[in-house]
Amino acid sequence: MCFGAVSDAYFKSFRRHAPAWKALLEAVRTDESVRILDLASGPGESAKTMALAMPAAQITATDIEQAMVDKHAQYIGGLPNVESRVANAEDLSVFADGSFDAVTMCYGIMFVVDRPKTFAEIKRVLKPGGKLALTFWRESKISLLAREMLLELGRDDIQPFDSNKCGKEGMMDAELQAAGFEVVKNVDDAYDFGPYESIEDLYETAIVPFAFSLDGNPEKEELMAKAKFEFWKLAPIRYPNNTIPANKFRLTLASL
Ligand SMILES: C[S@@+](CC[C@H](N)C(=O)[O-])C[C@H]1O[C@@H](n2cnc3c(N)ncnc32)[C@H](O)[C@@H]1O
User: Fold this and answer.
1) Which ranges carry the Methyltransferase type domain (predicted)?
2) Is the CB of 89 under 6 A from ligand 1?
């Protein structure tokens, strides 16, 4: 799954996630000169939010994709306490053991292929007593739309990408405990996507999990065109005011 293809759309619409960045910041906020590794930083707002609120902290903002690192390096724009690097959350070998006080990851854990490996790597780069703060979807409506679109197009043979895959009650707690973390707290919240200025803007966001579901599928272009047609019929009824309401997320804070 590649965000590079949608990085412009994501960058344009990403500000809607402010409640998640705020929750992440509150989980790790300190006046001390800590080192924080932000994984899957995407366009960079989570790292920038932390860097501005914690001037004594040193933030390493990372993403698996060079396109996203380029975007966030430009967006963060020379803040003295942030460095940008390419890094895969599943293989943090570019970082030494015990080199961070905290690791943060906002809406990234659902994209890794091997979560136990990711948690083991995070554990390795954390200092003893280090913190891990994660946000993940419990009910992102655009993921439900991807499933619905595939059924609408008669394609129940295609597995929809599920952004909510980590949101089942207790699942993340159990995985973190199995990886040697103690779950300190879970905070649940929800926010709307939108209102967007136009259906076109709404569509650019809403279609992302559907597009991920078709990665590598030779029929992708044709199915995307059909889905766009369906979306234009559905959107005014389903998303009045170009808004996707009440997307539920969770912040989990764990420690070693
Ligand atoms: C939904 S975006 C979240 C971006 C950002 N944290 C935010 O809250 O705005 C997910 C990001 O995860 C990145 N990603 C996917 N797999 C990854 C992996 N294995 N390691 C690191 N980053 C990954 C993608 O490139 C993308 O930028």
Assistant:
1) 37-133
2) yes
